[in-house]
Write a structure and sequence with these properties.
Distance between the termini of chain A: 33 Å
Largest interface: A-B, 48 and 48 residues
Helix content of chain A: 55-70%
Oligomer: homodimer
GO molecular function (chains A, B): metal ion binding
CATH class of chain A: Mainly Alpha
Protein name (chains A, B): DinB family protein
Organism (chains A, B): Panacibacter microcysteis
CATH superfamily of chain A: dinb family like domain
Number of domains of chain A: 1
Keywords (chains A, B): Metal-binding
Strand order of the largest sheet of chain A: 1-2
CATH topology of chain A: Four Helix Bundle (Hemerythrin (Met), subunit A)
Pfam family, one (chains A, B): DinB
Chain lengths: 162, 162
């Protein structure tokens, strides 16, 4: 757990770029949905893609604030009404993009190996929480790809993070 | 790109544990499929889950060998016949689990920041390739979760990597 070397597996800057690259792909996935299907379409009783996206937003925005400051709100504790249109959802998305970019440089490098109770309830090392936030987005976005395919819509290419 | 600090974001050991944790979840996802559906079931013209799993196997096995040695085969260049049963697919999976565990300690820590033409065709930093292999598995496994849900089968919990 405590091993460190001068050779970084990944630097904080690279991890931010990796995360924002995935977030660009998610944004393109949101855009690919027809406006109504984004909020209504489902397979196998799963949540519509808009609700999965709200989970990413609720995890990333308050999550990065908690990681930087050590102060956590309860998960999903955003008093604002949920976006009801694609444009409003994308605007909320872009707010989080800015927040992530502006908060990240204020995270001390040693923070990634500290233990933290994320959202006051999930115990883990900070790097683990960051990877969980990213992986959860990849996981559910992959499900959004199936929704798109089953609607006859080509999803954006997975490898393109620009 | 070249910034290193004594505080590691994530150590090589942690990255292996993270990867193998995801691979445990994928193994449970394979097990959750009925034998026939694993090789035949599809939504929206997508590949059956068995073919997605073969992609993970072809990426992880030869991928980790290439990362460690710098010697690459062409992607998918495995002359053995593809597994045709769930048991055979799981056996192939377990081979890769062992290979990953035995190869990983032989990867020099500085290797993660070296540039490499993965599989002779994908140019990138080694950490990027490793994350790509992991993310590709998360992405397509999420699609397998939709297949399971639409079959009325509860997938294994996403957060459980034991």
């Amino acid at each position: 757990m405590n091993q460190t070397t001068n050779a970084a597996v990944i630097t904080p800057e690279q991890l931010l770029e990796h995360w924002q690259g995935h977030r660009k792909l998610t944004r393109k996935t949101i855009e690919a949905f027809p406006d109504d299907k984004l909020f209504t379409y489902s397979i196998g009783g799963m949540r519509p893609f808009s609700e999965l996206v709200m989970e990413f937003i609720d995890m990333t925005g308050p999550g990065i604030t908690g990681i930087q400051s050590g102060e956590w709100k309860k998960f999903g504790e955003d008093s604002r009404p949920k976006p009801a249109t694609k444009a409003a959802l994308l605007a909320r998305w872009d707010e989080v993009t800015e927040l992530l970019n502006s908060t990240w440089p204020n995270i001390k490098p040693e923070r990634f190996q500290e233990r933290e109770l994320a959202f006051g309830q999930w115990d883990g090392t900070v790097y683990w929480s960051v990877l969980y936030f990213i992986d959860n987005e990849i996981h559910h976005r992959g499900q959004g790809f199936v929704y798109l395919r089953s609607l006859g819509i080509e999803p954006p290419p997975f490898w393109n993070r620009q």
